[in-house]
Amino acid sequence: MCMGVTAGAYILTLFAMKYRERVIGLILVSPLCKAPSWSEWIYNKVMSNLLYFYGMCGLLKDCLLQRYFSKEVRGSTEVPESDIVQACRKLLEERQSINVFRFLQAINGRSDITEGLKRLRCRTLIFVGDSSPFHSEALHMTAKLDRRFSALVEVQACGSMVTEEQPHAMLIPMEYFFMGYGLYRPCQFSDSPRSPLSPSCISPELLSPESMGLKLKPIKTRVSLEV
Q: DSSP string of 111-155?
């Protein structure tokens, strides 16, 4: 069982395609599967040049944060940055510029793996935020995967880092995903009405997809009829 985010999802998909017998399931967050477009290639090239000449400057950090986080958590002149974005900004300051430079070069030189997606036979669960710049790529990947073994969850008002921005939106889809492997255990709720974990104390609206920011799409099934 493997889980990866953006470039990590790309690497794990390559691994699952090459070693199909070693991977029983993939959980991919804002995955990549196509070669970079011209706009993305130029964007990465500009960031690489900024990093080479000026180091980890404020403009470069803003560009990286804009790629991975939605505007809701990045803040504005009136709304402060969220704790997650502030922590990531601090981590970027601690990273060596050469490592970030190599990462940008690697992601800019990735190849298209669309043709190999049909060969995947492991179950695949894909998460993507509707504000992610990789949203269209996740939709493309879902369309190329075998629908019998794959599912897509789009998270509203979220960027690429669904794991950081809205991890609660991943709970129920992952629970059902693991049920297919027999890994699910029902929660031992107390029957006491005083218990905060009692089912009677949990409003059904809180467990609805809309309240968790999920946008679920119906699955169309084609059936061929023989006359």
A: PP-GGGGGG--SEEEEEEETT-TTHHHHHHHHHHS-TTSEEEEEE
Q: pLDDT tens, position by position, for the chain (227 residues)?
A: 899 999 999 999 999 999 988 999 999 999 999 999 999 999 999 999 999 898 899 999 999 999 999 988 998 878 888 999 999 999 888 878 888 999 999 999 999 999 999 888 899 999 999 999 999 999 999 999 988 889 999 999 899 999 999 999 999 999 888 887 776 665 554 444 433 333 333 344 444 444 444 554 443 434 334 44
Are 33 and 120 contacting, i.e. CB atoms less than 8 angstroms apart? no
Identify which of 153, 58, 50 has the alpha carbon closest to the alpha carbon of residue 104.
50
CB 153 within 8 Å of CB 127: yes
Question: Residue 190 falls within a domain, yes or no?
Answer: no
pTM of this prediction? Answer: 0.78
Does any domain span residue 163? yes
Same domain for 134 and 42, yes or no, is no
Structural domain of 27: 1-35+111-185
Q: Tell me, rounded to whole angstroms, the distance of Cα 134 from its chain centroid.
A: 9
Q: Residue 160's domain is classified under what CATH number?
A: 3.40.50.1820
Written as six digits, the tokens of 184 are: 């699910």
Concatenating the DSSP letter of every residue in 65-125 gives HHHHS-HHHH--SSSPPPHHHHHHHHHHHHS-HHHHHHHHHHHHTPPP-GGGGGG--SEEE
Residue 169 burial (CB count, 10 A) = 24
